[in-house]
Amino acid sequence: MRWDELFADLEAQADALHQRDRDAEIADRTRAEQATVEVADRLRAAIGHTVTVRVGGVGFLTGRVQRVGAAWLLLGTGEEAPWLVAWPAVIGVVGVPRRAVAADSRVTEGLGWPSTWRLLARDRALVHVVRFDASTVSGVPERVGRDFVELRVSGLESSLPAHAEVVPYAAVAAVRCPRYPTG
Length: 183
Hints:
- By secondary structure, this protein is of the alpha+beta class.
- It has helices at residues 2-34, 39-44, 106-109, 113-122, and strands spanning 50-55, 59-68, 72-76, 83-86, 90-94, 127-131, 136-144, 148-153, 163-168, 172-176.
- The protein has two domains: 1-36; 39-176, SH3 type barrels (Roll).
- The chain has a ten-stranded antiparallel beta sheet with strand order 5-1-2-3-4-10-6-7-8-9.
- Strand 7 (136-144) and strand 8 form a beta hairpin.
């Protein structure tokens, strides 16, 4: 009888030690997995939900997450046109779910600035660009380079006469294109 109690106690201690080791391993794996999550993954989980984004050069934008690309976030704010916000301009986000969703395809991962600007240039769409320093420029994209877009700026949109202005992608905080209404 005494031996049964001793072995039962040893088995309980072994089970407890095994459970503690298992819990520690799960916690380590969870932390390692969380370390691979990017802000884009968190915002993909928020598609269709309303969030508030603090954007450098712009301020706070509250709206529905419509799409998440490799270089930007498309946010419908209920205004005439959605905001295309550059990832480096995102200073903080409130209202995202705790879960994350990885990019579902190479196409989604490839939605960077060059492909986006090529679409806008093809459509000859008037865009309003807000830069990191909060300055703005409005024009029609004419040329799209690896790291810049060249806008044709009319004299009406600027204090300068009509001209072409090269805007590096690294300077872009957010873009609005009135031709593409919030949908």
